[in-house]
Write a structure and sequence with these properties.
heterodimer, A: about 280 residues, 4 helices, B: alpha+beta, Alpha-Beta Plaits, 2 domains, six-stranded antiparallel β-sheet, 15 strands, about 30% helix, globular
């Protein structure tokens, strides 16, 4: 297993100690070149732009965001998004994006780096395959919230639908309220933090990763089992709750439940290469 | 995929035809094959025993291309008229919505099921709905096309449900379009998004109890099941809660009666639904963009949870 690096550890970039043959790479948070694409735009956070989406379709909105970044805008405001689908997708750049309103399906998908705030609600599959950055939603979210995310912080301050964090591969998902059934289904890495209640089959068939729940759990899924919270995790949760203004339903971090993979099902990471071929 | 939508005014009426058209047009991308409406006028304004019946005498394609179809459609209509009179119905206004779809008013105080069975026995005739408040309209094309064709933009009423259909397991025709009337119960209709996996087993069970199916569409099963439960004296909410256990598969459906609108979601929560509740109106749809078609300003919406059933009263 790779050696833990202090800076990343402090930021909570990893706490789960994976067993088996898993090899994790721990990036240094100070090495900025790790997070910049070769064709990303040079933006100035003191320069701002605005997009009024009232009469634009999603493609036009996304093109306008890209044009503003090319002009050097580091802060962009989107007004009147009107719950349209696929707004703010594929942003591979540092950017502070403020969305004033609600998004439809697939909002903020495939992003790597931007810091996004959304004053309204988001539909299904928000921030799907997000790789880095933050997305903070003030109201509710639909199902498949944070599906297959790989990094960054995805925060919904309200309630979210079913299958939150399905196929999650990294990063952290925060839910201020309740989450629906099958949350954490086939989770592979990363963390999910639910301040309120969780629906049935929480963490079903999870390979790895950690789920924290501050309310009641209707039922655990196959191979999801209770775990012991460490002091490091408690400190990390407190820092994050303070940062995002969240409070667990149970009142304190120490009372939250921790759910991990029981690893009694077949576990892909523990298989020999020849065995993986058989499975695939 | 398919898109479903519903709205109910609280304690008053509104332009449900125009509102539902706007919502369904916003859902066109979920299903462009056909569009259907179940619109509810005010039952209070309807005299006792007075019904509105929507029926068709041919499919759209048949009406356009069928051999000697004009003559056949006229024969079917004449047969319907004569059978209604034979059953003792006192005829009111009789309007043609299209060349193959009609809207009849009639007074009747007998056994509605017998009347419906007798009328529908006419070859090529399908009754879309019978009710004191319900009017069920469905046809091929998007919401704007159907609304213009049937003059729905100015329809005033208390509530409505609607459907945009992407045909997957049955034909692109009016018979397979939603909503479905819960035969033979006046004023009960259903729209559904999903797939039922115990369709045939369950259908045979209901057929053995005397229910009829007009299509091979699994959504019709929900309407008939709800009708069956209500026939047993069960209230709408209980019938819907029972359906969540009884129906196998993935579904979100809406059901409406003369003064209620209900929503049910399966235990996997596999099909979408977004809800908005205000003091005046409750609106719901497969996507928020449909609700925003009638509420362009920012609103607070939410998703119902797995296995959830909700019923609202006008």
């Amino acid at each position: 297993m790779a050696e833990l690096k202090t800076a990343g550890h402090e930021m909570g970039m990893h706490t789960e100690q994976l067993s088996g043959r898993t090899q994790q790479r721990f990036f240094s948070p100070s090495a900025e070149e790790n997070f910049v694409y070769h064709d990303s735009f040079e933006v100035d956070f003191n320069k701002s732009g605005e997009v009024d989406a009232a009469d634009l379709d999603p493609t036009a909105v996304n093109i306008r965001i890209r044009e503003l970044m090319a002009e050097g805008c580091g802060r962009i405001t989107i007004k009147n998004p009107g719950a349209q689908h696929s707004i703010a997708v594929g942003i591979l750049n540092r950017l502070r994006l403020d969305i004033q309103g609600s998004l439809g399906y697939f909002g903020c998908g495939l992003i790597d780096g931007p810091n996004i705030t959304i004053s309204g609600r988001v539909g299904w599959a928000c921030a799907e395959n997000m790789m880095a950055g933050t997305v903070v939603i003030e109201k509710n979210a639909g199902s498949q919230f944070g599906a297959a995310i790989r990094g960054g912080d995805l925060v919904c301050k309200g309630d979210v639908g079913a299958r939150t964090g399905i196929d999650q591969k990294g990063g952290t998902i925060f839910v201020g309220g309740r989450t629906g059934a099958f949350s954490g289904f086939m989770m592979q890495r990363g963390r999910m933090v639910v301040c309120g209640d969780a629906g049935m089959n929480l963490g079903d068939s999870m390979y790895d990763g950690t789920i924290f729940v501050g309310g009641d759990i209707v039922g655990l899924g196959v191979d999801a089992v209770p775990g012991e919270m460490t002091d490091l995790e408690a400190d990390w949760l407190k820092k994050k709750f303070k940062k995002y203004g969240l409070t667990p339903k149970c009142g304190s971090v120490e009372k939250m439940q921790k759910i991990v993979a029981g690893k009694q099902l077949w576990n892909y990471d523990n298989l020999e290469p020849s065995e993986k071929k058989l499975v695939l | 995929m398919c898109g479903i939508a519903g709205l109910i005014h609280r304690g008053k009426s509104g332009n449900v035809g125009g509102e539902m058209t706007a919502m369904l047009q916003a859902l066109k991308h979920r299903g462009p094959d056909s569009t259907g409406y179940a619109l509810y006028g005010s039952e209070d304004a309807t005299p006792v025993n007075q019904y509105v019946m929507r029926f068709k005498v041919a499919e759209q394609a048949e009406a356009q291309h069928g051999f000697d179809i004009q003559g056949k459609m006229q024969e079917r209509k004449t047969a319907v008229d004569s059978r209604l009179l034979e059953m003792g119905a006192k005829m009111g206004p009789m309007e043609d919505a299209t060349e193959y779809a009609y809207r009849y008013h009639f007074d009747f105080d007998g056994d509605l099921k017998r009347l419906v069975d007798y009328v529908e026995d006419v070859d090529g005739v399908e009754i879309l709905s019978v009710g004191k408040a319900l009017e069920l309209i469905k046809d091929l094309g998007d919401a704007t096309v159907v609304s213009n064709q049937y003059g729905l933009q100015s329809f005033n009423g208390t509530h409505a449900i609607g459907h945009t259909r992407m045909a997957t397991e049955s034909d692109v025709d009016i018979r397979s379009a939603h909503p479905y009337w819960a035969y033979p119960f006046s004023d009960v209709s259903v729209v559904h998004n999903g797939q039922l996996t115990n369709y045939w087993t369950f259908r045979r069970e209901l057929e053995r109890k005397g229910h009829r199916f007009m299509s091979n569409c699994d959504s019709e099963l929900i309407a008939v099941y709800i009708a069956d439960r209500m026939n047993d004296g069960v209230d709408l909410e209980t019938a819907m809660k029972d359906s969540v256990d009884k129906l196998d598969g993935v579904f979100t459906y809406l059901v409406a009666t003369s003064d209620q609108l209900g929503m049910a979601k399966d235990v996997m929560a596999a099909k979408p639904m977004v809800l908005y509740e205000s003091d005046d109106l409750i609106a719901m749809a497969s996507e928020e963009v449909a609700i925003r078609a009638i509420f362009p300003h920012e609103i607070d919406t939410y998703d119902p949870y797995e296995g959830e059933v909700k019923v609202w009263q006008n």
